[in-house]
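Minutes, project check-in
Item: structure for the 218-residue chain
Input as provided by the requester:
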Amino acid sequence: RPQALMPTVTVHLPKITTHQADVLFDPHRYRVVKACRRWGKTYLGVVACVDAAIDGKAAWWVAPSYPIAEIGWREIRGLVRQIPGHKLEEVDRIARLPGGGWIQVKSAVDPDSLRGEGLDLIVPDEAAFMVEEAWTAALRPALADKRGRALFISSSNGPTWFARLCLRGQDPLETEWKTWVFLPDTAYNLTAQEVEEARSTMPEAIFRREFLCDDSAD
């Protein structure tokens, strides 16, 4: 969708699906997305970060490893380069926008390295594969002073802390939380034929975890 940065500057974001838009524009403070492989989780998180930075906010994209962080950085750079006056700091993986907003891509390999910033938005990518301490001891406190938001995105990885967050977002008493579970029929780039091919060639437990978001599969 087009995003107005200034009256004379428009950033054209590639099309997002109806399901992605439901998450992106939802008002809950903590949004939790568990989705099948190749659903578009990374793209959703990248758009959320760029959208926040366009509004002058500070956002972190946090991945469980350096290779996964690089994927997010590559996607963020691709969108930010459309914006006149942007600055990319490659060493620290920071994208700065003319209105004062910025995005930094981080790794959760060392949770202590995630301390110190006050943030408006955090996107933990593949959250089920990072240690819980990264959220509880470092990322959650970074949201406190600005009452920042979090968008957790991940595929399944068994009964992890992320699985507990998914349950929290399904509890009607948790009014600041919301969870979505997206299966292959909601993925724009997965055909039924491709899913059935995966089912026939993968071990059942792995297929159920990767495509059916089944945290109990082992």
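Outcome recorded: Residues 138 and 199 are 38 Å apart (CA to CA).
No further action items on this chain.
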